[in-house]
């Protein structure tokens, strides 16, 4: 017999369980704050900064809501639910904006303990829910996305579906009409907060229909549940969905004998509304996006051009080993296996838990679709572990041993997650020195001006400097990544400068164009009268290339931190746009862990410099050093370059003395915009002028 002995937990005890679990979850999230609170480079405006790039997107929207205005086409998310919630909280809470966005993820994310405990309560297993709350609230993937400073929609992305699960289990176990409205409200809230939940919630509808057909096909109440799920999913305003749910509830409540034909007629109307307002189209789009259907290394644009796929470079979207998968969900492989066993046992014991299957399914596709999905399986697996722990303890007769067993098992599940929290010390997105530069830049640039930099830095640039960008964390498809990468890796100043002016003007024009048949990049090529994109790219290097009228200034932002990812950045433009094929990968190697061995300098990973014959040893190969450069800053922060040529061919070695860093580069990387203008501060004075030259970040203004 798998079913557990039912508990009779009082509401007072229930409240204590919730309070203890919430405070436990919140307190562990203060470890990050306590670790970095006295680190000056992580603080700005007397507060720690956030540690999530995407957070600056929503912070920008909240800031603009509070200011009451934003620039046209600046992509500020003033309509985002998180931005609206943040702005509202900022108005009513006596804390700074920086403090608010720092603590919101932890304070709100810890609310996950409430639905988990309530699910246990609905199944008369509050202890199971309490253990699940302790384990699930700090599970690796859930903690990572709701820790202090991880300001993002993730703070409620699991809380809402957990509330959906609770409302469904409550309805399925009690089968009374008054429990139908919470189903629609919880689903409608989740749809409002996170529109991508459309697929997950449609899965819930399918699960309830399948459950009814398999176990209780004549029970009209189960189809009522499915109906109210569907109402919550409809692509209609929140108030309309709630009003529709309330109206139907009133109809069912006062209808003494509900006609079966009438009910199915209502059901058919709502089904028709579902397909009329979206149907399966959003689901297919999500599957293609999440699973990378039809894309490997390159993806085709709307027309014939091919681009490098950004998903190929995002770790969260890649395949992960089983051990990582298990640890992300339950903290440890052993705990995960126990949780899986317990979950299967719980499904057998409590059939209503079948509504957790969509969450588990979405979480388990992480094995192929990437670790970002593991967070969805956390609540169900936590419940599974809680079930197993209680089930084992109930096999023990002695009450003291029973409680000791519960405590040992719970501690065993909590401890690996605690260790992860102690070690997961994510730094802030930017340092205080970088923010100081961006704040200085804000006073120079106009809100209508554009800044060209890689998409990783788009949101923070917009937030701190209040400018526009080509790319950011949400706008980084191939058609915008290509021109950005092209500018940063261009082999001459004219190519970079011409692309900066052209794509800025066409990007801004693109916002006002209707019925566009191609993206801004391809529209630009066509309107510049080129049939072959390669001819267009070649023409950009010509000094006489005619530029469009200038409507705003354009700046180039080159942060030091881009050095770490620069080889990846170049992948997006180092390809043929017509075929998507890339030439052989150019050579780039960076090292800060080097050791002077006397006759050689060991750069690590099998790369070393032979001082005696001026060669490089790369693995078993010996390559001549073409030119050796030593670059550093003098007392006035001016770049000083010393160079020594050795051979007509080979690799270039750059020693960035002020950074304690060696670069080994072929000519492609050496001549790129980023290396020349950041490392050497070499630029065409007719095309660019320096605005800020700081060792951490350099900004140039386009003069044409």
Structure description:
- There is one protein chain.
- 51% of the residues lie in helices and 12% in strands.
- The chain has 30 helices and 18 strands.
- With 704 residues, it is α+β, with helices and mostly antiparallel strands.
- Helix 2 (55-67) crosses helix 3 and helix 5 runs antiparallel to helix 6 (126-136).
- It folds into 3 domains: 11-423, no CATH class; 432-571, Pyruvate Kinase, Chain: A, domain 1; 588-702, no CATH class.
- The strands form 4 sheets. Strands 8, 9, 10, 11, 12, 13, 14, 15 and 16 form a 9-stranded mixed beta sheet that branches. Strands 6-5-7-18-17 form a 5-stranded mixed beta sheet, sandwiched between helices.
Distance between the termini: 79 Å
DSSP strand count: 18
- What is the mean pLDDT? 93
- The helix/strand class is alpha+beta
Please give the domain count: 3
Radius of gyration (Å): 29 Å
List keywords for this structure.
single chain; 704 residues; alpha+beta; 3 domains; nine-stranded mixed beta sheet; five-stranded mixed beta sheet; 18 strands; 12% strand
What is the element layout, followed by pairings?
Blueprint: H1 11-36, E1 43-44, E2 47-48, H2 55-67, H3 81-92, H4 97-109, H5 113-122, H6 126-136, H7 140-144, H8 154-157, H9 159-174, H10 181-193, H11 198-215, H12 220-233, H13 238-254, H14 260-276, H15 281-291, E3 298-300, E4 306-308, H16 322-330, H17 333-349, H18 357-364, H19 366-369, H20 378-393, H21 399-423, H22 432-442, E5 450-452, H23 458-465, E6 468-469, H24 478-489, H25 493-510, H26 520-527, H27 533-539, E7 554-559, H28 566-571, E8 588-591, E9 595-596, E10 600-604, E11 607-610, E12 615-618, E13 621-633, E14 639-645, E15 651-656, E16 661-665, H29 667-670, H30 673-679, E17 688-694, E18 697-702
Helix pairs in contact: 1-5, 1-6, 2-3, 2-23, 5-6, 5-9, 6-20, 9-10, 10-12, 10-13, 11-12, 11-18, 12-14, 16-17, 17-20, 18-20, 20-21, 24-25, 25-26
